[in-house]
Write a structure and sequence with these properties.
10 helices; 6-stranded parallel β-sheet; binds NADPH dihydro-nicotinamide-adenine-dinucleotide phosphate; single chain; Rossmann fold
């Protein structure tokens, strides 16, 4: 239906924002659910973010997804913060009720949903997380919540991995970046949470022959969908989970928080976004 003057409203704020897939996904869910609702992209400069969030909280807007570079500002501006957002140190979801701003982080549960959708049980063995930025923090938090028995970390800047371990995984073993393949011995899950593999950049190379045959490789990068990291793992016969699963997984609880219902199951969100990323030539 076409939105009316009584439409529910939500959106996504970031800078840049034009690349975001969230508006297309949310629009498909809104249409399929027959909601009178709008989900808008907002390009907001870093210096305007706090003012923007506070002003929007005083409107009829239900909330916002928040992406780079505003995830820390979103946390700082909130009146109420979920345990996940507090532990991760970043918020990707703000909801507004009576002028009160609530911050949450659904990247963590989104990552676990992506594994679950592919039948991957993270607690079945050790996990190696590559990276120590915002995505890695959400993923390590998620793995801890899921009861992963051993977390291994490797990051280009070892000090950032040490900070991540201190905050979220005190028992993690840290491998120097150049020795990251050592983390593959006996591993069950390997996650690329670096920005390596993004279109136009370098790939993340691993010696996949060193990993057990039932290892799963998961990527947070989804542009391109088939990163070199996943392609190489698949070529060694390993199972893979692409980065769209995490994106869709964080969007579902966001939709529920904004509009009070689950996204309609009949929309194949992965196929929808894959078609946007890989248009038929
Ligand atoms: P950050 O900038 O916070 O972190 C970037 C990470 O990549 C750091 O660990 C950094 O290492 C590492 N890195 C960057 N360049 C290199 C390089 N040349 N060699 C080795 N390591 C490198 O970004 P985010 O954590 O927010 O995002 C990481 C990726 O995850 C992005 O591709 C993003 O698109 C994706 N993402 C996907 C989501 C999804 O829903 N699928 C959600 C959120 C993010 P160092 O500490 O040394 O700088």
């Amino acid at each position: 239906m076409k939105p009316t003057g009584a439409a529910q409203m939500a959106g996504v704020a970031g800078d840049p924002i034009a690349h975001s897939l969230s508006p297309s996904l949310m629009a498909a869910w809104i249409e399929a659910a027959g909601l009178d609702a709008i989900y808008s992209p907002f390009r907001i400069a870093r210096s305007d973010a706090e003012t923007f969030f506070r002003a929007l909280a005083r409107t009829q807007c239900a909330g916002l997804n928040v992406t780079l570079p505003h995830k820390q500002t979103a946390l700082a501006v909130a009146d109420q913060v979920s345990p996940a957002a507090r532990a991760i140190g970043a918020a990707n979801l703000l909801t507004f009720r009576d002028g009160i701003i609530h911050a949450d982080n659904t990247d963590a549960t989104g990552f676990l949903s992506a594994l679950q959708a592919r039948g991957v049980e993270p607690a079945r063995g050790p996990a190696l997380v590559l990276g120590a930025g915002g995505a890695a923090r959400a993923i390590v938090y998620a793995l801890g919540q899921a009861g992963v028995p051993e977390i291994r970390l490797s990051n280009r800047s070892r000090s950032n991995a040490a900070d991540l371990a201190r905050d979220l995984a005190p028992n993690a073993r840290i491998h120097d970046w150049d020795d990251r393949d050592q983390g593959l011995d006996g591993v069950a899950l390997v996650v690329n949470a670096t920005s390596l593999g993004l279109s136009g950049g370098s790939d993340l190379a691993m010696d996949w022959h060193r990993a057990p045959a039932d290892t799963i490789a998961a990527d947070s990068v989804y542009k391109p969908l088939q990163t070199g990291f996943l392609r190489d793992a698949a070529a060694c016969g390993l199972g893979t989970v692409d980065g769209l699963g995490m994106l869709i997984g964080q969007a579902r609880p966001s939709f529920e928080a904004f509009f009070g219902i689950s996204p309609p199951e009949r929309i194949d969100a992965h196929a929808l976004l894959q078609a946007m990323l890989e248009p038929a030539s």
